[in-house]
From TrEMBL:
GO molecular function, one term: alpha-glucuronidase activity
Domain Alpha glucuronidase N-terminal: 44-137
Any GO BP: xylan catabolic process
Species assigned in the record: Daejeonella lutea
Keywords: Hydrolase
Name of the protein in question: Glycosyl hydrolase family 67 N-terminus
């Protein structure tokens, strides 16, 4: 029997379901899987006399895992002149050297396994090759680490030892991802992830190396010239000779604080406001007519001043296209990003321009790392069926001589298939030729037990539906986008049935049941997000009564509560990038439900709106301001469709209540951007005013409610904690028929805004008169 944290699993069943028998033990790369079986009892681990710290650590790791096998008594001893039988010889032992192991020929993460009689030599490169050899050996024996808290330990007394020499050197020398909760040392080492400690500064560092707060007042010329104005807080003026000298001096100070770090990013900040001064434009024109020209010219100067470090810069967004007539210095690293690429198919199919850019950068730079996006920023928990693109993409990169990868994912282990996606990414970065099918099956059957087959069917059905629909998968997408594709009503019903079966089959095992329920969270999330877009359908969140009032269905309210509860139990921090905790999500829907429940008490529901200015053409019409549908405020950059918004225009309308009635109060909520108020193109109004009239001609003096919040996050960081701002006025029962509303927009983004001068929107969902 094999038993780990996943419950009982026979060894034969494990080997069959994980694909190890069928594929010949795929996990140790590129070798014929000829193994011999011996007992685990009384095996010893031999390390060199006066062994190094990495050798001692690798030995302790091997001992730790093998000691969990039945009847195993594993000891670690230093080598002496005697040859010990039934031993693992780890590291630079005299025994290994006598067997012609040439350590000088091993790259830093490479290893060799060499059987000699009843002994096995494990030798590795200067970095972590020895440790990685140990972990691959353990994987051959049936050990697995599916997650930081899930390690499968085989329970056979037998050890499977290679019968022939095996060696492996990874094609990708730098391998990392961003699943934060999976970043512990044990998990990272097991999956051969490179350390982020190699980076002294990691991307978007212009503002770190020349902070606007330190230089904006004294040296505005250090920053981008945009439409004739210097704009601190955007990018740097890369043609200014003082800028490069100041940056080099500041960078050297930071290097002195972390001298062991190899990579230092000197890279654009996360906006597209690059300098448009004559000198920067001239550099860009000289080097191919692209903004990356001035960047490489600048970064080359930094690299020449600091020859002992790798100076990394981004080829991202406006700088993705390679320059011409210039070469990157040998110690310049190009971090090439494909944020624009769609994810329903491999990037070489969805983004041929990126393929061309990769090849072009390869002609001018010798060190390239790919920043690959495997995340849906706007909806972390939503279904994101990109699993079958991972191998194709990684293989494409290695075929184009890329030797470093950063596979961005999100930090939420409870996100859509996050643990499986991490497992696939890690395995494929280590061995790009591995079978994705076998890796998926191995994980699902090992981590979910007997429920794995149903979750595999769920994955396959979603993939087939995605392909059939022809839908394009966007990293800034939403479940609503897929409501008629792979998240259609019929497909959602199939998925739920599969999860019902999965839960039923493991219902007696609390650990496995919880894992299945966590894997179901994306379907629950999709049902909520899609449900709010429909009324009176089987999957809608809302149902309209005979009185015309729309209310949330009790089962949908319960679904929101259940979803949030499970997210919190799984320690989900954010549901969207930069904003949106589970509590925030619940508060958003609680607001909707409570306000809709009170609709029958309002005097404005269903009443006529007379527009004086018009909403954005893509917005719901002004009549929606009294339809009783409230919007969710858990926005990222695009608001809930139930908000009405005005762009570059003040909001002006008259509410006709249809008759003279007493007005006690008028209330409107306006949406505030929570993720990046200095980037997104909407804001709270400066003020909202209400005036009332009996005849629609003579109005009372407007009651003006001033927005109390400074919208600039640089001087008011707390602005991100305002989700909606109420604008409320009491009228104490005054008799009137008409309410005139004016919401004073900023109209354009202010000077402090990264996209200063562009039209800005204001959002509201309902006017509520009591």
């Amino acid at each position: 029997m094999a038993k780990g944290n996943n419950g009982d699993l026979s060894r034969l069943q494990f080997l069959k379901t994980s694909g190890l028998i069928a594929t010949g033990l795929t996990f140790l790369p590129g070798m014929v899987r000829s193994m011999t079986t011996t007992t685990a009892a009384n095996f010893r681990i031999i390390i060199p006399s006066m062994g190094s710290a990495p050798e001692k650590f690798a030995a302790e790791q091997l001992k730790q895992y093998l000691s969990q096998l039945p009847e195993a008594t594993i000891s670690v001893v230093e080598e002496d002149q005697n040859i010990i039988e039934n031993a693992f010889y780890l590291g630079q032992t005299a025994f290994a050297k006598a067997q012609s192991i040439d350590f000088n020929k091993l790259s830093e993460d490479a290893y060799i396994l060499k059987p000699v009689g009843n002994n096995l030599i494990v030798a590795g490169g200067s970095k972590k090759g020895l440790l990685y050899g140990v972990y691959d050996l353990l994987e051959e024996m049936g050990f697995r680490k599916y997650a930081p808290d899930s390690t499968l330990i085989p329970k056979s007394k037998a050890l499977m030892i290679p019968k022939s020499v095996r060696s492996f050197a990874p094609k990708i020398n730098y391998r990392t991802t961003s699943y934060g909760a999976m970043g512990g040392e044990d998990y990272s080492n097991w999956h051969k992830l490179s350390s982020r400690s190699e980076w002294g500064l990691f991307v978007h560092t212009f503002h770190t190396l020349i902070p606007a707060k330190d230089y904006a007042d004294t040296n505005p010329e250090y920053f981008s010239l945009i439409n004739g104005t210097r704009r601190p807080g955007t990018q740097l003026c890369l043609s200014n000779p003082e800028v490069v000298q100041v940056l080099i001096a500041n960078l050297k100070k930071k290097i002195a604080e972390k001298p062991a770090s190899r990579y230092w990013s000197v890279s654009q900040d996360d906006n597209d406001q690059y300098c448009g001064c004559d000198n920067c434009n001239a550099l860009n024109e000289k080097f191919g007519g692209v903004p990356s020209g001035s960047i490489i010219h600048f970064v080359n100067k930094v690299a020449r001043a600091i020859p002992g470090k790798m100076i990394s810069t981004l080829a991202y967004w406006y700088s993705r296209k390679a320059p011409k007539n210039i070469k990157a210095e040998p110690n310049v690293n190009i971090m090439l990003c494909n944020i624009e690429s769609l994810r329903h198919a491999p990037v070489y199919e969805t983004d041929p321009a990126f393929s061309a850019d990769l090849k072009d950068w390869g002609t001018i730079a010798s060190d390239i790392i790919i920043w690959d996006y495997n995340i849906q920023f706007t909806n972390f928990i939503a279904p994101f069926p990109n699993l079958f693109t991972l191998k194709s993409n990684i293989k494409f990169y290695t075929d184009n001589n890329v030797k470093a990868l950063f596979m961005q994912a999100n930090n939420e282990p409870a996100a859509d298939m996050a643990l499986l996606r991490a497992y696939l990414i890690n395995k494929l970065m280590w061995q790009p030729e591995a079978s994705e099918k076998d890796l998926i099956d191995d994980f699902l059957n090992g981590y979910f037990g007997s429920a794995g087959m149903y979750i595999r069917q769920y994955i396959d059905d979603m993939q087939a539906s995605l392909v059939k629909s022809g839908m394009k998968l966007n990293i800034f997408g939403d479940p609503i986008d897929a409501k008629e594709a792979f998240l259609s009503a019929d497909m959602m019903s199939k998925y739920n049935n599969l999860f019902d079966q999965a839960e039923k089959t493991v219902g007696a095992n609390k650990t496995l049941l919880r894992r299945v329920q966590t894997a179901r969270l994306p379907i629950m999330y999709a049902a909520i997000q899609i449900g709010r877009t429909e009324i009176n359908t089987e999957r809608s969140m809302y149902k309209q009564g005979t009185d015309g009032i729309t209310l949330a269905k009790p089962e949908m309210k319960a679904l929101v509560q259940d979803f949030v509860s499970k997210c919190k139990a799984e320690n989900v921090n954010l549901i969207r990038e930069r904003a949106g905790t589970p509590d925030h999500y619940l508060a958003s829907y609680t607001r909707i439900f409570e306000k809709m429940d009170a609709t029958s008490k309002t005097k404005s529901f269903g009443k006529k709106i007379i527009p004086l200015t018009m909403p954005n053409q893509k917005s719901k019409g002004p009549e929606a301001l009294t339809d009783g549908l409230f919007g969710s405020f858990e926005s990222w950059q695009s608001a809930d469709k139930n908000f009405v918004y005005y762009t570059g225009e003040h909001m002006d309308f008259v509410l006709d209540l249809g008759a003279l009635i007493p007005i006690n109060s008028v209330h409107m909520d306006f949406l505030n951007p929570q993720a990046q108020p200095d980037w997104h193109l909407f804001a709270l109004p400066k003020s909202v005013s209400y005036s009332i009239s009996a005849d629609g001609k003579k109005y009372t003096e407007p009651v003006v409610i001033i927005n109390p919040h400074n919208p600039d996050p640089a001087t008011n960081p707390a602005i991100i904690n305002t989700y909606v701002q109420p604008f409320h006025s009491e009228f104490n029962g005054e008799i009137a028929r008409y309410v005139k509303v004016h919401a004073e927009s900023l109209l354009t983004t202010p000077k402090w805004h990264i996209r200063s001068g562009q039209p800005i929107s204001i959002y509201t969902d309902q006017i509520v008169v009591m």
